[in-house]
Amino acid sequence: MDYHISGKTFIVNLDLKENLFDFIKTITINFKLIKRRIIMSTHEQLEAAVAAYIAESAAFETKGNKAAATRARKALGDIGKLTKVRRGEIQDKKNAM
Question: Which residues have C-beta within 8 Å of that of residue 62, sequence separation ≥ 6?
């Protein structure tokens, strides 16, 4: 069975776990991008990033989960980027008043 996503062709064969993993990973990434760009405002993205940071930081601090530490750092990077975008949006709205 062939699937075409973002110009890539994935041949799904249960014997080839890598193709299936890549297929699922691509679908997940595309869904997150669509959700982030269409449905969520910058403010909502900031709230989600802060919630993700809090959850991952707690998992790292309480359970010692190293993967959670990486995800917490990623969330902090996202917060920094989103903060800059939101500041620009607020400034533009203020100037338009």
Answer: none
